[in-house]
Amino acid sequence: MENKYRLIIAYNTAQMLLVDKVLRTAGIQTELVPAPPETGTVCAIAVKIDLSELENSSETLKQNDIKVKDIIEEKKLKLQGLIDEKLGRAVTAEFINILRKIENGDGLNKDEIVYLLSTQKPREIEAIYTAADRIRKEMVGDVVEIRGAIEFSNYCCKSCNYCGINAKNHGASRYRMNEDEIMEVVHDLYKVGIKTVILQSGEDAQWTTERLIELIKRIKRETGMRVTLSVGEKRREEYEALREAGGNNFLLKIETTNRELFKEIHPDDDYDHRIQCSKWLKELGYINGSGNIIGLPGQTVEDIAVDILYFKEMGINMIGIGPFIPAKGTKYENHPHGGIEETLRAVAVTRIVCKKVYIPSTTALASLDKDAQVMALQCGANTIMLISTPEEYRRSYRIYDNKNMVDMEAAVYAVTKAGRKMPEYIKIMKKEERRMKNDE
Ligand code: SAM
User: Whole-model pTM?
Assistant: First the structure.
């Protein structure tokens, strides 16, 4: 049967946003969705319209003098062979129905997602991981993207109850890197071939938007690298100015979509405002990152299922899913850490539901067990973030205790053990070269 949706493929993000705006203004209902793999990079976005609006849309675009790259039928990702006789009696009829929907490329509802997140049947878990891994392969391939993160300041004005660098944690030893220190690391990352630098910090008033703008321009001028920002909530104008300066991606996790829990863990943040920030980031054309924490006090699997549906509905492009890990000096310092298995399950189900997105194998997982990063790559994850903060500061960026300082060696280990590929653009230094560099 012919699919009832069409995807408008634009030449670039700016044009895609323009197409979306023009069609909406003309009263046509649109949705921004990941473009199919064959039409562009992992985060390419398409504008989805109903088939009944095709003529009207084409006419509207013509009237506004907008030529698009293509308009194609939305194809569902079909997976053959998820259901086989091996599953036998070890799985329920309900599970088979869900697998059938996954095979057909149909969307899952909340109850089905809850089922996938909570089953304890080994054969069902195995089938969930297999489905996630196959969807990952189809959608984003075997190469694991490697990014370098510079945690450039741990000063923060917020008092998030889970976070070890929150303003009220007087036990945290504070540092702030300056522009030259940051650029030194940026150049090191550039030399090994890394293409994206992640700039992360607490919400630090001294690192003003003006300073960030100058820093982004300098990174662009001196290396041309892509820049991911992870600097918290800002005004729309500030996000816009950072985007104009060259910011490409922005990570601002929702952490949980349960309103009460959100309030409990973020005493000075507003849930609706956080969502508004995420919408602005999308409107401004950032590759939009979100994510959640697994194992927060009082969090349920229903909450996690709603998080996953939220990522899908908001068209989030990068989804960071990490276990909660207690941090000394915080309200939850004695709360147990989130489970590895629960986190891996959330990764797998997110891949099954959201399909063509970046999902990191998170540092938090690696901090609980270095092989958990391997496992995440085997059940849906496709990126790794290196902790590239200089030695003298990295121990102080203690958002949680016993953080694993994932380096290139750890990334190569995880990628190799997971049977995946390192990007060709990375130049891996041999052990002797690294030693010589450290001796310099
Ligand atoms: N200030 C920015 C923000 O809020 O987006 C970026 C820095 S914040 C420290 C980066 C991420 O650290 C958060 O999105 C949160 O998910 C994670 N994080 C902080 N404390 C954590 C903890 N105790 N366990 C797990 N993740 C934690």
Answer: 0.91
